[in-house]
Amino acid sequence: MQRVAITHVAQSPGVESKENLHDFTYQVNREVLDKAGLKRADVGCIISSSADIFHSGLSCANAFDWDGIGAFMKEGSRAEESAMSFIYACFRVLSGHFDTVLVTAAIKGSENPDNDAITPFYGDPFYLRPVGMNESVVAAMQMRQYMDRYGITEEQCAKVVVKNRGNALFNPYTHIRKRVSLEDVMSSDRIYDPLKALECAPKSDGVVSVLIASEDKAKKLTDKPVWLSGYGCSLDHFIPGDRNLLDGQLQAAAGRAYEMAGISDPRKAIDVAEVCEPYAFQELLWCEQLGFCKEGEGGKLIDSGITQMDGSLPVNPSGGVLAMNPYTSRGLYRIAEAALQLKGQAGEHQVGKKVKTALAHSTHGFGGQCHSVVILSA
Amino acid sequence: MGRAVAVIGTGQTKHGRRPDVSYPDMVREVIMVALEDAGITLKDVDGVVHGTMPSMMEGVSSTHLYFAEAIGAVGKPIMKVETCGSTGQSIAHCGFFWVASGMADIVLVVGSEKMNEGDSQATMTTVFDPYFQRVFAAGAPGTFTMQCMEWMYRFKIPEDKGREAAAMVSVSNHDNAMDNPYAHIRMKVTMDDVKNSRIVTYPVRLLDVCPSSDGACAVIFASEEKAKKICKKPAWIKGVGFRGEESFFGESDKSIWPSATEAAQEAYRQAGIKDPLKELDVAEIYNPFTYQEMIFCECFGFCPRGEAPDYVLKGTFKKGGELPCCPSGGTLCTNPIGATGLIRLAETVLQVTGKAGARQVEGAKIALSHAMGGVDQFNGVTIVSSNL
Lengths: 378, 388
Known about the structure:
The structure holds 2 protein chains of 2 kinds. By secondary structure, chain A is an alpha/beta fold. Chain A has helices spanning 21-36, 53-56, 61-65, 82-94, 115-118, 135-150, 154-168, 182-187, 215-221, 250-261, 266-269, 280-289, 298-304, 320-323, 330-343, and strands at 4-11, 45-49, 76-79, 100-108, 190-192, 195-196, 205-214, 226-235, 272-274, 357-364, 370-377. Chain A has 15 helices and 11 strands. In chain A, strand 10 (357-364) and strand 11 (370-377) form a beta hairpin. In chain A, helix 7 crosses helix 13 (298-304). The mean pLDDT of chain A is 96. By secondary structure, chain B is α/β, with parallel strands linked by helices. In chain B, helix 3 packs across helix 14 (337-352) and helix 6 crosses helix 11. The longest helix of chain B is centred in the middle third of the chain and has 19 residues, at 159-177. At the A-B interface, helix 2, helix 3, strand 3, helix 4 and strand 8 of A face helix 2, strand 3, helix 3, strand 8 and helix 9 of B.
């Protein structure tokens, strides 16, 4: 089978952008092509990821993005969520039709209302929306269940914020770069009990571009290609009440990715993970379901220090979504960060250990309705 | 180049006003039809691709989440692809590339829209950027009318000749829809009916314009190996092309519509088609407006620029003509937007597999389907053939 690799990545700086969306997107897009020494005309195909109207004020946002992502009169398409865009780009290369595909995810969260004002639109207008469901409310219910069932403590959940926000201090491309203590997190406002303000992701601007290429082309473009070795995705039932919020589809998604990558013991095989944790406790829950620890032992995992930057399985060395949440772009940020770790180009937040295999995860929908897992290897 | 990919099953709902079913029920209805047509069950499906027009039409964001059960995607990998009006072709292309990549053997592609529960013109106005274009956007007809005026002016087509040809396009599509049990608008219209119907945006009249329909379409893609095992008469994907222009409507020349032209050329190149008028047996064009169908015929190389009205008037694109366009009655008679581009593909599949019933074009072997989207910005084309 044909292989596909990430050759170069570029990200926008974490600060709120003063540029308009066209220019904001163009700059990052231009940067990744410059790194690869390619011109727009050399790229086979362009795939974008952009939010729907609820996160952007634009319907068919790719229509507006088209100029900035360099797609004028080029073969291209758009998938809504950015991990999907990445994998769609991989399909296109693996099909043999294209040597290079540029994937760009763009969003300006700073120009939109709070996430809690937008995520109710995930809900249907008949049952979920009228009772006030939004992403944070469902997360709070999920967190309560998680603590009740497995005896996970609020402190253990809060520790994830301390870790990730601490890591973010070393990442110039992330949004919130301010250290917080356990006390800060524990004493922050309870937004939806037991969820506290500092345990929720911010709302950020973010453009990230990833250039992917076929095996032959990748070897010509870079001496450090990052190979796609596994991919899995799975979708859960729509109504949160119809599912087990503590045992959703992540295991299925991860299982598919591990099978494709030939991984039987993820705890040993994965060197670093970038996990999508818009709510602090979710990092612990997702780590369990990714097979990094046993069921119900997410609390022990964070206590053990294994997932710290210098631990044996660093999770979110970039600072994760808790430090930067460009809503639809966040999945591709995880993939880009995992690629940088494999290339040894993560700068100050490069983990201490040698990285041969990395995992990137993305989720969207209430309580993790849809999960995608990508395994990358050096 | 990659693996060969076939369509092994298609399904359509009865399109039109569907107050009899909820939106998810309507989507479920269509996937069951497609699965039955292919002779497989949901268990055989490796992945699902879903798309609608923008989610403002649904009033629900990320519609693949809402339709998880309806599209049969629970526990399966899902792709949500959306490119405005061209969504139907874009989701088909995603299904094609997914199978061609070797990462799935059977992919179910579903497009849907329940336009009567939303406000389609208000939704389309939000496709325009909020600063410059939205303030004077008047939904779809305003944009498309400017385009048709530009086209007639550019090629010095006398207005009455353009009017006559557009009326004939309308009559021909409405006649064709009488043969299509799935079509929304099924009524005979005369040239005079079209020419005397009320003005929507001059010179476009009511019978030059598509309806707002409820409807869904599902198409099942399979690898060569699976297709040969499962399906007696698969339709093979021979070429796919998609192009887009600037987001600012005024910056490109819509009278020669580069994105439509190059999307078709890309698909022709892959399919080895040099003279589309001779080589294609049937075309399903995304024609929400009669005048646009003529512009598309020129962009797709069916006739020289500026001469589409002549070809229409001599019957080239009518049923029984040299290259029948839209034997289904086209978008002009049925337009559930998110499904429409996929319906075009499904109709060409029915044609090349000889399953199109009363609207069958005799001996059709190779066919073009198409969809258009954005602010007159995107065009996607797919070529299918009865031969591998």
